[in-house]
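Q: Given only this backbone (102 positions), what sequence would you predict?
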């Protein structure tokens, strides 16, 4: 079972990497991440990280097995010293979880 899961995840990585190697993504940096605990790996993930002016964003390709894969564009926003904005996002837009690098 573990071998099948690793092969499935690896095939997904290869498929995403094939998209990320296209000329449109040439200037972006390729990264990989492994989710899991200890020696138990739940998911391999690949993504691209880009920057325009002082704004960073992350690109990910999902639903690769389908006829029309989905390209996710996720802005990376620095919320340091922005307590009011964070509270507004939580109360008005009901966002529940924030991640930060400390």
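A: Predicted residues:
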């Amino acid at each position: 079972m573990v071998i099948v899961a690793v092969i499935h995840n690896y095939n997904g990585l290869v498929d995403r990497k094939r998209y990320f190697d296209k000329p449109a993504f040439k200037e972006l940096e390729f990264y990989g991440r492994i989710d899991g605990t200890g020696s138990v790996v739940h998911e391999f993930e690949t993504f691209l990280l880009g920057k325009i002016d002082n704004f960073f964003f992350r690109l990910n390709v999902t639903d690769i097995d389908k006829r029309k894969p989905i390209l996710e564009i996720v802005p990376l926003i620095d919320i340091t010293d922005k307590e009011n904005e964070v509270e507004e996002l939580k109360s008005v837009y009901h966002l529940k979880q924030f991640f930060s690098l400390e």
